[in-house]
Write a structure and sequence with these properties.
Layout lengths: L2 E6 L2 E5 L4 H12 L4 E4 L10 H14 L7 E7 L6 H9 L3 E6 L19 H10 L2 E4 L13 H16 L5 E3 L5 H9 L4 E5 L1 H5 L2 H5 L16 H11 L6 E3 L8 H4 L14 H11 L6 H13 L7 E10 L4 E4 L2 E4 L7 E6 L1
Parallel strand pairs: 2-3, 3-4, 4-5, 5-6, 6-7, 7-8, 8-9
Antiparallel strand pairs: 1-10, 10-13, 11-12
Helix pairs in contact: 3-4
The structure holds (4S)-2,6-dioxohexahydropyrimidine-4-carboxylic acid and zinc ion.
Length: about 350
């Protein structure tokens, strides 16, 4: 018997679309299923000012397939030189929905990020006043901190002090990977939420390292031990509105992943909804899927729910291309390592 599940059309609250040929190749993969996405600003050079974001938004809209209804929710990349007035103007015009904080050096294209958090205080205070969300890449970059501990240390050393010093600042702790992140967000006062990626619900660090190095499972924050994955999975399937989907789908061409110094990022845009339906079903939580992908995010950002729906249908095994082609080279699609049975029907 076919099983179907109709849900409001989902949104992706953390997405990398890149630019140029890569943008043209990956945007349709997201626009097929998602109504909106928070667009990461870590281009080279980064999207720093309101005028950068207007120009990038135009390039995204031009790259959309004919007839696609997709709204890019733009962000600015926070630097130590960011002008609070420019941020406030970009917010007032409706252009941006968030500002992104990368600790300098934490991940791909983060060299222009923040080293001295005191330097961004005026921007953060202005954001708290106007109700603009700060999206945070939550890892310290101190070389003496083990890479598997960097998220937990970030909470203590940076996130908690910043939130205490800036009452009213709305924060999304992005792509959490630890039980520490889950507990911190679940236990905090209002105004804090977390995104969880598809891949961190599926893989732990063994997937990356056992039986050889698997570069397509390498991303940042790096996947942690199994107990952390289970905590993420419990949070995502719990129905707690503080947790919602941000895929962090981050395309890199294969030669840059399968490399002596491979790039971080899993490309999940193509099969995310099938993977999520499978894992929510495995956990007996299909009734919580719509909250995670379609309801909790808009509630946190104060945006309307999508009016249209998508239908998921369970049947024979579904297959997706293992790679998508771009004019820059092939991009490998995330392999969850288990068969998928839920397809999106139109
Ligand atoms: O795995 C990741 N890839 N994590 C990030 O934070 C950045 C992203 C990218 O831009 O490739
Ligand atoms: Zn990201």
């Amino acid at each position: 018997m076919t099983k179907t599940l109709a849900i409001r059309r989902p949104d992706d609250w953390h997405l990398h679309l890149r630019d140029g040929a890569m943008l043209r190749a990956v945007l349709p993969e997201t626009a097929r299923h998602f109504a909106r996405a928070i667009i990461m600003p870590n281009l080279v050079p980064p999207v720093v000012t309101g005028s950068d974001a207007w120009a990038y938004r135009d390039r995204i809209l031009k790259a959309l397939p004919e007839g696609a209804a997709f709204e890019p929710l733009m962000t600015l990349y926070l630097t130590e030189d960011t002008d609070p007035a420019d941020v406030a103007a970009a917010h007032a015009s409706g252009l941006i929905r968030a500002v992104k904080l990368y600790p300098a050096g934490a991940t791909t294209n983060s060299a222009s990020g923040v080293r001295d958090f005191d330097k961004v205080r005026p921007v953060l205070e202005r954001m708290a006043e106007i109700g603009l969300t700060l999206c945070v890449h939550g890892e310290v970059t101190d070389p003496s901190v083990d890479i598997f501990d960097r998220e937990a240390v970030f909470i203590d050393r940076v996130l908690d002090p910043v939130r205490r010093a800036t009452p009213g600042l709305r924060v999304v702790m992005e792509h959490i990977t630890t039980k520490d992140g889950v507990d911190y967000v679940a236990g905090a006062s209002d105004g804090l939420a977390a995104t969880i990626t598809t891949h961190h619900l599926v893989i732990n660090r063994n997937h990356i390292l056992v039986g050889g190095i698997h570069p397509h499972y390498y991303c940042l924050p790096v996947a942690k031990r199994e107990s952390h994955r289970l905590a993420l999975r419990a949070a995502a399937t719990s129905g707690n509105s503080r947790f919602f989907l941000g895929t962090d789908s981050a395309p890199h061409i294969d030669p840059l992943k399968e490399n002596a110094c491979g790039c971080a990022g899993c490309f999940t845009a193509t099969n995310t909804l099938s993977v999520l339906a499978e894992i929510f079903e495995q956990d007996g939580a299909l009734d919580k899927l719509e909250g995670f992908v379609s309801l909790h995010g808009p509630a946190f950002y104060g945006l309307p729910l999508n009016e249209t729906t998508v239908t998921l249908e369970k049947g024979d095994q579904v297959s997706y291309p293992t790679k998508i082609d771009t004019a820059d080279g092939p991009v490998t699609v995330f392999d969850p390592g288990f068969p998928l049975h839920w397809r999106v029907v139109y």
